[in-house]
Design goal:
By secondary structure, the chain is of the alpha/beta class. It has helices at residues 17-30, 47-59, 78-83, 87-92, 130-141, 172-181, and strands at 2-7, 34-38, 64-67, 100-102, 106-110, 148-152, 186-189, 196-200, 203-207, 223-229, 233-241, 246-257, 260-263. Strand 6 (148-152), helix 6 (172-181) and strand 7 (186-189) form a beta-alpha-beta unit. The longest helix has 14 residues, at 17-30.
């Protein structure tokens, strides 16, 4: 059985030091084999924010997979945004934009869904293209049948009704078909600062809220998730902040039957 921690939307520049310490304390207790960080490490992609994010990553005692979000591209320096959008990411964090972590019990693949611009005015929207999907599928095909297959994206593949105005990821339907064919088990995402877990076409979509920032959505508290299990059974815990500490707020259980995940909660 493996234990994964999924945190998202750290937004250094708007971080709360108490939450950082509370999060690290919980991770020490759960000792995950992998910490997944699904984007938006900074608030405005400023140097000091990237340096704060780097300091946080250096404090992690566990392997981690980190991807970028739309906030990790400069917002106001348009020249840099259009021509070298990931210069600061590579300079201060020095992590690949589409990382892969392979272990005995799982394979985790990150995809960069943030874009420097879009056809609509809202450039915070994300998308995934066919080339990325082909590369992702090739990685999972090399995984092995018994390994849990995890896709990490910043932008959501599904949203509850009250958050539909934030928009799902562009290219979602083609991506879902490709990911089902590649045997993906679970998609981890962020972006809208609300925690939920949902079954979509036989896959699990698990979304983490903002773990440590003050950028809360409506009445949603700061949160992160702990995922335990294997390719046959997964338990997903949502841990929320109660002004003193993080504690378990929701516990869901899923089983995989004939290649599709079912809710056994």
């Amino acid at each position: 059985m493996i234990t994964l921690a999924h945190i998202s939307d750290l937004h250094f520049g708007r971080e709360n030091p108490r939450l950082i310490e509370g999060l690290l304390h919980c991770l020490e207790k759960t000792t995950p084999q992998l910490v997944v960080i699904s984007g938006d490490l900074t608030q405005r992609a400023r140097k000091r924010e990237f340096l704060a994010a780097r300091t946080f990553l250096e404090r992690l005692s566990w392997p981690y997979l980190v991807i970028a979000g739309n906030h990790d591209i400069p917002a106001y320096n348009l020249s840099e945004r259009f021509f070298t959008p990931w210069k600061r990411w590579h300079r201060y964090l020095d992590h690949p934009l589409e990382p892969i972590v392979r272990a005995e019990e799982y394979i985790a693949v990150g995809v960069n869904t943030a874009r420097r611009s879009g056809s609509l005015f809202d450039w915070s929207r994300g998308r995934v293209n066919l080339y990325q999907l082909d590369v992702i599928a090739q990685h999972f095909e090399k995984g092995g049948d018994e390994k849990l297959r995890i896709l990490v994206a910043h932008h959501p593949f599904w949203l509850p009704e009250e958050y539909r105005h934030r928009h799902i990821i562009g290219g979602r339907d083609k991506a879902l078909k490709k990911m089902r064919d590649a045997g993906v088990d679970i998609i981890l995402s962020g972006h809208v600062h609300s925690a939920y877990t949902h079954l979509l076409g036989g896959l699990i979509v698990s979304h983490a809220g903002t773990a440590i920032s003050s950028r809360l959505t409506r009445n949603d508290p700061n949160s992160f998730t702990i995922i335990r299990g294997d390719r046959r059974r997964l338990a997903i815990e949502t841990w929320t902040w109660n002004n003193k500490k993080f504690s378990i707020d929701e516990h869901l259980v899923f089983t995989r039957i004939q290649g599709e995940w079912k809710d056994n909660s």
